[in-house]
Design brief:
Shape: globular
Number of domains: 2
Number of helices: 18
Distance between the termini: 29 Å
CATH superfamily of the largest domain: Glycogen Phosphorylase B
CATH class of the largest domain: Alpha Beta
Number of strands: 20
Radius of gyration: 24 Å
Helix content: 25-40%
CATH architecture of the largest domain: 3-Layer(aba) Sandwich
Length: 469
């Protein structure tokens, strides 16, 4: 989103800049990062001390979008972003790391004398910016008119820390008191403070926005705030970067194709079957899943349904990594159905593209799904999605049995293994009617979920905010 939305907004003629932590994998020479004299040795508050931070600058490759990198190696020059790859757990000083990042963002604006109309924040890592703007940096002066928009990609990730970490935020003490904006069940939550203070809140699909207000599991404890702020809360679908995910130009797949040359898709199916060490039989449908292997993505009901699904006339490939117990059960099923199921534990970008191009169907049985991207990739690749009707999946896939003229896939509502099996059976039945299937594939490939559409909605909100007093 940071890449694609930014570029789409720039294309519409608006001035936009980005600020990111300079994580360990970002190499100065590779991306031509440069020192900015005015942004050297910034004194940034962190608790009761001042930290010296350098900020470097670069342009996105092939664009004129300026990006600032907060270069503080003790916090950001590590192998992981938020999680320590050695332990698999969150870094213990994440509260300090991202408090420093938020304060540095204001130091950059002040040192550059660049005062934007809107600061667009993403997730808990930047959620201190709205309250810091209103309570500290923008109470008066040139930032007083600046507004904030906070996008939440998944309400389950909240930046929750022990109360003693509050001192690093730089916010007034009342934020951490009982019923304070940051107080959260005896701890503090950066996300909660951001939700209370952002001028506008967005999330990544209209249905997920509605469900986050209604369902305690999906709202993850924030639903009361979201209901209270419903007038300022919007669901805007994520877009797809079609420069990377389009079968007509995808460099990761063996054979390119469009909706006008669908027959060439079969060549990719051949390559994928060969990779899985399965025989090429074009009349047998091939199903794919690319996912984190966790319950949120529906793997509890999928594991229950798979023994029944794999008795049917199909092939299935799963690519992903996650819960070790789920990985073990999937591998066990592969041993039981070696001619029908191929499981690749890990992540492989090239294989992900080949699955989208080579499969006939794509299964996403998510328990909940804020937006989802693989169903959007699948539509463009003519790989018909089978999805659970939740979040962004419900917003982007139209059930073809419910709406034969506009249908683009298969949707099941109840979170249930039996209903999942029945929906797979519906899809297999459709696959046998080759003429109808071809029409379905063409319709799916013609769908447009580009970032240009989403960017228009964000720009409308920015302009609305800029007019506010």
């Amino acid at each position: 989103m940071a890449f694609s939305l930014t570029h789409a907004i720039k294309e519409y003629g608006h001035e936009i800049r980005m600020i990111l932590p300079k994580y360990g994998m970002i190499r100065d020479r590779q991306y031509t990062l440069r020192d900015v004299i005015r942004l050297r040795d910034l004194e940034v508050p962190l608790g009761d001390q001042k930290v010296l931070v350098n900020v470097k600058s670069a342009f996105y490759p092939g664009s004129k979008i300026q990006v600032y990198f907060v270069d503080y190696p003790p916090y950001f020059g590590r192998p992981g972003l938020y999680v320590d790859p050695k332990t698999g757990k969150d870094y213990e000083d994440n509260a300090e790391r991202f408090a420093l990042f938020c304060h540095t963002a204001f130091a950059v604006l002040e040192r550059l004398h660049w005062y934007p109309d809107v600061i667009h924040c993403n997730d808990w890592q930047t959620a201190l910016i709205p309250p810091l703007l209103k309570e500290v940096y923008g109470k008066e002066g040139p930032l007083a008119k600046t507004k904030t928009l906070l996008t939440v990609h998944n309400f389950a990730y909240q930046g929750v820390f022990p109360k003693e970490k509050f001192r690093y935020t730089g916010l007034p003490a009342h934020f951490a008191e009982e019923d304070g904006a940051a107080a959260y069940y005896g701890k503090i939550s950066y996300l909660k403070a951001g939700l209370e203070y952002a001028d506008v809140i967005t999330t990544v699909s209209p249905t997920y926005a509605r469900q986050a207000q209604e369902d305690p599991e999906i709202g993850a404890g924030m639903q009361e705030i979201l209901r209270r702020r419903a007038q300022d809360f919007y669901g805007i679908l994520n877009g797809v970067d079609y420069s990377t995910w389009d079968p007509s130009s995808d460099k990761e797949i063996p054979v390119n194709y469009t909706f006008r040359s669908i027959d060439r898709k079969m060549e990719n199916k051949k390559f994928l079957l060969e990779f899985c060490n399965m025989p090429f039989e074009p009349e047998i449908p091939f199903v794919g899943t690319i996912s984190r292997l966790v319950v949120q993505k529906g793997f509890d009901i999928l594991l229950e349904a798979l023994p029944v699904i794999l008795e049917k006339d199909l092939r299935y490939i799963i690519l992903g990594v996650g819960d070790k117990e789920i990985e073990k059960k999937l591998k066990s099923l592969q041993q039981r159905f070696p001619e029908k199921l191929f499981v690749h534990i890990g992540f492989d970008e090239r294989l992900a593209h080949l699955i989208e191009a080579g499969c006939d169907l794509f299964l996403m049985p998510s328990r909940y799904e804020p937006c989802g991207l693989n169903q959007l990739y699948s539509l463009r690749y003519g790989t018909i999605p089978i999805v659970r009707g939740t979040g962004g999946l419900l917003d982007t896939v139209v059930d073809v049995d419910e709406n034969p003229q506009k249908g683009t896939g298969f949707v099941f509502k109840k979170y249930d293994a039996k209903e999942l099996v029945q929906t797979v059976e519906r899809a297999l039945k459709w696959y046998q009617d080759r003429a109808s299937w071809r029409k379905l594939v063409v319709r799916a490939m013609k769908q447009d979920f580009s970032w240009k559409n989403s960017a228009k909605e964000y720009i409308r909100l920015y302009q609305q905010l800029a007019k506010m007093k």
